[in-house]
Amino acid sequence: MLEKKSLPCLLRPAPVVYLVAMCRAVPVNDLLDRASQRSDKMHSLSTLLTQEMDSHFPPYGRMQMPRPADCHTSALQTPNDKEQALQVSESDLMSLARSLLQAWVDPLAVLSTSAITLPHPSKSSISSKIQELQEHSKSLADGLDILSGKMGPSAQAISFLPYTGGTDLGQDRVTILNKFNFLLSCLRRDSHKIDSFLKVLRCRAAKLQPELC
Amino acid sequence: MYNARMRTHLGLVILCVLSAARVCSSTSAPESPRKFDCRSREKETFSCWWEPGSDGGLPTEYRLFYTQEREVRECPDYVSAGANSCFFDKKHTSIWAEYTMTVVATNALGNASEEFRITDVMEYVKPDPPVNVTVVVNSSAPSPFLEIRWKSPPDVDVRTGWVTLKYELRVKQNDSKEWKVNIGSETFFNFYNVYPGLLYMAQVRCKLDHGKWSEWSNTIFAEIPKNHQVEKYFWIFVFVFSLIPLLMGIYILLLKRNVVKQCLLPPVPGPKIKGLNAHLLKSGRSEDVVNALMGNQNFPPVAAWTEQVEDFLLVSDSDEWLLTDSFASEKKKDIFIIPAGLHLGLEIQCRDLSVDLNTWEKTDDSKEEAKSNFLNTEPINLPVEKHEFLNGEEMSIQPLANTSYVDIQQHPTLTDYSRVKEVNDNTILILNEEEIPHGLDAEEVKSEVSVPDDYSRVKEVNSDVVFLEKGDSTDGCCKKKEDHYTDWTNQKPIMPLESELSKGFCLKMIASGYVDSGPAFSVK
Fold first, then answer.
1. A208 interface with B at CB cutoff 8 Å
2. Do B161 and B81 share a domain, yes or no?
């Protein structure tokens, strides 16, 4: 969705002047709009995934649920309410979004392989949704790379948030399902953060077009 | 005495026991609260409610303590959200953060508490329904539709991008059970599937950031008005009014149909012949008919054929005849000239001759009979020639009109008509060669010419008649014109003969093929 070819004109080789005349950069507003649409789709998918998991097999009691602090991305300091979010600079918002997105590349791969053998009645539907999530994630990451290039060096900084859960979710059925559930809840939260930050960015960039907010 | 003391002790004990029993059954420590629920309306604040357990008969106080991985805090607002609630305002609300709530119920006898965990406030987001839902019936052409509009819930901030709202609209007819649903991000919708005269109802709800749907808004009703009677009456009015002049026009036309008939279909004049009285013809007498047509002319009696010696002029339009030696009978179109020993001394230029009946003049009584043969509907255009002769002689040719009959002034030596061997389509009488008198220039006479003894041996009468004087330089006299033949019916003989004739003349005549020997041709 975000076109890789829409490089900013300045990044193209300068000697050939006519190339500059030819290139038509997609405006930032448009890029942000596409990015936020992509992140919205990701958040929607992850919400559906958690609902699908819960509908059939809620393995945890309310108190046994792993805490969000246990998510591998909890170390990242992010704004937690509207006032805070509106005060963060655009570059930082972009950096946060990109960091979170990058942090989920490996876990999504683990989820994808585990979904095939998941002891759950809706595993095929779950598996397809996770694959779709992976595609969206990759596409969004590429697009944000381009966007951040237009926004400055601080936007391009990515915090490293390694996933240390390993490739295996567990041995027994209950453990597997619980881990799966936990990862999905972390994913839902992080995808919502990415979505919110990008939408704040979009609205801020489109001051002349309030209908984009 | 001993008995009285015993009785008072017993009474006191009973009293004590009774009073103790009363205290035990009505008061106790409170039960822990149950059923904890929260709700955020706009992703900025949230409220939580709990259901209190039994209070143990004593006034019980409930307190909520929460922690977010840090110090423990107490609920900032117990009032705004109602009884047994806690309201967290913007300052105390953190999205994506975990809350651990502890509700403590305390009374005089004890306390009880319960812990509740909020993993994410986003899980409890449920906005208020949209407000200001309005429906306007738009009656523009071609068909009416409903314009439905609404506004976002009042406390939701849609201007900063922090919140994304999605709306769901449903519309249905008042009577039916099926809702028509539309989901979108806009705050308006045009609903076209409406019919006049029916009542419709609509509702809207919204969703925040893929959270829970709000409640449905108030139902609004709208009725589509029936088809405008006024418009119908207007068109009926226009129709009737345009019909009146139309009917009047037709009536006038009918009244004056004769005049109209005269205008549109003028009567075609019937054929009229001068001097002809149509009524006379109707009477049916033959002599009347003849007189009407012929104009009361008296024909001289026609002499017997044999009594007359006649000259024959053969007129040809073709050079071929003159040039070729053999008289090919297949050359039917050729017109053969039989010299008849004419020494007319005429120098007549070949011209297109046109004549009409008026110029026709009979110089001989013998023409009388021939006249009847002139009844020909194809008048020959034979103009009277005057002043056009080379030798200066003034001559006029008055050829016969309407016939192919050309009469020539009689000359002493003439071949008899009966000697005509053949009359082609070109109406050339071919005389028998032997009979040709020597006086004639017989050079151009075909050797094959043989003239039968009587007329009855005429083989064929062609439609073309060309008369040429034999013997003269008729080479250039007549050009063969094949197309002459086709023109004859048009009565326009074309004879572009340019050469001069010293002695001969060329005549091209349109004829029906009849050549008579009557002295109809007079050369003066």
1. no
2. no
